[in-house]
Protein: Juvenile hormone acid methyltransferase
Organism: Ixodes ricinus
Amino acid sequence: YISSGRLVRGDLKPASLVGWMVFENTIPPSGDLVSRDALLLYMLKLLKFAGLVSSTCELLETTPTYSSLEERTRRLMTLNFLSAIVTEEENAPLLKDVSEYTARLWDGSKAGSTPLPSYTFVVRAHKPRP
């Protein structure tokens, strides 16, 4: 899963959504972790807690690229955890806020700023036999 990145770290806090604080506890703890070692340790602890033994635990770093502002907005809406839990009434303000946020990111990338990388875990694990 996508473990860390701008959206996960909460850079997008839609001010127009009433009761935003209700959603803050849905951000995974990995969202605040920035070092590779901390992220890997987090995943290994999750696997141990679940009673799994990992044969592979890798962290892939990607810097996303987009051909258009619309493509980037669609992608951010897809990845935004709020899009799965907001009500139908809250979806329009969320899309507006994501669009505005995306426009700021797009302007920054056109000005030469480097987007923050996203990290994705690749895990192979199994339940040990009794």
Summary: The mean pLDDT is 78. The first strand starts at residue 2 and ends at 4. Strands lie at 2-4, 53-62, 118-126.
